[in-house]
User: Which sequence fits this backbone?
């Protein structure tokens, strides 16, 4: 039996991916445009990454944020 692709079910997935990408872009602009230049802190992993960045300046905030989130991304599935 041949399965037909369900375009109707694909549309909300694509729209959610677009919204997640837009939200991530806005968050990245806020971190790089406001928090880092003014030496502000945030909460959660972002704040922890900023503290490490301000103290050591060895690794970029985005890469450190990704490294801290890998255990949570792998356990979510």
Assistant:
């Amino acid at each position: 039996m041949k399965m037909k692709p369900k375009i109707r079910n694909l549309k909300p997935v694509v729209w959610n991916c677009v919204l997640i990408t837009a939200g991530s872009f806005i968050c990245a602009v806020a971190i790089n445009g406001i928090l880092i230049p003014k030496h502000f802190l945030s909460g959660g992993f972002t704040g922890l990454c900023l503290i490490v960045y301000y103290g050591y300046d060895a690794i970029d905030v985005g890469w450190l944020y990704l490294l801290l989130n890998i255990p949570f991304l792998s356990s979510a599935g």
